[in-house]
UniProtKB/TrEMBL annotation:
<dbReference type="Pfam" id="PF04727">
    <property type="entry name" value="ELMO_CED12"/>
</dbReference>
<dbReference type="InterPro" id="IPR006816">
    <property type="entry name" value="ELMO_dom"/>
</dbReference>
<protein>
    <recommendedName>
        <fullName>ELMO domain-containing protein</fullName>
    </recommendedName>
</protein>
<dbReference type="InterPro" id="IPR050868">
    <property type="entry name" value="ELMO_domain-containing"/>
</dbReference>
<dbReference type="GO" id="GO:0005096">
    <property type="term" value="F:GTPase activator activity"/>
</dbReference>
<feature type="domain" description="ELMO">
    <location>
        <begin position="193"/>
        <end position="349"/>
    </location>
</feature>
<dbReference type="GO" id="GO:0016020">
    <property type="term" value="C:membrane"/>
</dbReference>
Length: 364
């Protein structure tokens, strides 16, 4: 079956939503009209309670749904009609297309965000294809300039700045695919590379203590739950190990410091398990697009896997500080403080100028 174009699907989704809102409104109206009026008795009957509830439910949707419906209608009108006219007017007033105006008047993550949105919302297939993960950036730059009739002799700054934006946009999407592939890769105890990485993690965190055997309770000393760490990597696969190992390799002192904090008699926690949990947090932030501003500000080009590892290093180091500042009673409150920390990080990432990275980290 042929898939409907995105604009057509969006229009039908809006219409479907409006019909559902209207249906709910009609049902509540009929219910309140057929309900019995309140009596003068001191005690409310079940029918009267239902009447009060339905009246309240009617009042809320009556105002809330009007705003929602107005928002959807305005979004549809703006994206389908007004935006095109406004772009046409500005093009003739300034002599420059929307992409040129964005690149001339903004910078940093805000610039890349606006370029990405402009390309994604364009009615031109050439422009929309420029924000795909697998593109030839140079070819896309040339195609877009040809489509928008941009003369690189008159606007010499457009081409390099636009290319940088495309590198960041496509690079972010490619990074997500790479992270996803690593997450889906299970830990294999028969894979020599996997085993070497796991043993290296131990040696970096416990340089003066040798493992008695491959399967041993000693793994609990660095925060694994069982005698064999491979069972703890099921949720995040090799991504969890890669993050923990990167932190230990590039911030060895910091990793050992965080590990020592995890031994606290009252507020201690399982270092490796928390690291894997924070790997999931970093992954979810990447998947949702929340990390875009961070990477757009951090990397003048395509972000790589090491940049994702660096963000994890920031998370685990800052979470350790956050954990002890909050002074939880015990590890049973972990989920509560984990979500509180998650909210804090998302608030920081909502700033388009933000860069969350440990001091002394080399980003290039």
């Amino acid at each position: 079956m042929r898939e409907r174009p995105a604009p057509e699907r969006e229009e039908q989704d809006v219409v479907r939503f409006l019909f559902r809102c209207h249906g709910l409104y009609v049902m509540l109206t009929v219910a309140t009209q057929t309900a019995e009026p309140l009596s003068s008795d001191d005690k409310l009957s079940a029918t009267e309670l239902a009447y009060c509830l339905l009246r309240w439910c009617l009042w809320l949707p009556q105002h809330l749904m009007q705003l929602i419906m107005f928002g959807y209608i305005w979004q549809y009108i703006y994206s389908s009609f007004l935006r095109c006219w406004l772009k046409w007017i500005w093009r003739h007033l300034t002599g420059k297309c929307e992409l040129q105006r964005i690149l001339n008047n903004t910078n940093g993550a805000k610039q890349t965000h606006m370029i990405e949105n402009s390309l994604a919302c364009s009615k031109s297939k050439v422009l929309r294809s420029a924000v795909q993960s697998e593109i030839e950036v140079d070819k896309s730059v040339t195609d877009v300039m040809k489509e928008k009739k941009i003369n690189d002799q008159k606007d010499v700054r457009f081409k390099p700045k636009f290319k940088l934006c495309l590198l960041q946009i496509s690079g972010y999407k490619k990074l997500y695919l790479d992270v996803e592939n690593l997450r889906k890769q299970p830990y294999d105890s028969h894979n020599p590379t996997h085993e070497e990485q796991l043993l290296e993690l131990w040696n970096l965190l416990k340089p003066h203590e040798k493992l008695k055997s491959r399967v041993t309770k000693q793994w609990g000393d660095i925060g694994f739950q069982g005698d064999d760490p491979k069972t703890d990597f099921r949720g995040m696969g090799m991504l969890g190990l890669a993050n923990l190992l990167y932190f230990s390799q590039h911030h060895t002192d910091g990793a050992c410091q965080v590990l020592s904090h995890s031994y606290h008699p009252k507020m201690g926690y399982s270092y490796a398990i928390v690291g894997i949990n924070l790997t999931e947090m970093a992954y979810s932030l990447l998947r949702s697009g929340t990390l875009k501003s961070h990477f757009y500000n951090l990397v003048p080009g395509s972000p790589q896997m090491k940049h994702f590892h660096q963000f994890f290093c920031y998370l685990i180091y800052e979470f350790d500080k956050f954990w002890f500042e909050e002074e939880p009673e015990n590890i049973m409150h972990f989920n509560f403080f984990r979500e509180k920390f998650h909210t804090k990080v998302k608030a920081l990432l909502s700033d388009q100028n933000t860069v969350l990275i440990l001091k002394g980290t080399k980003t290039i």
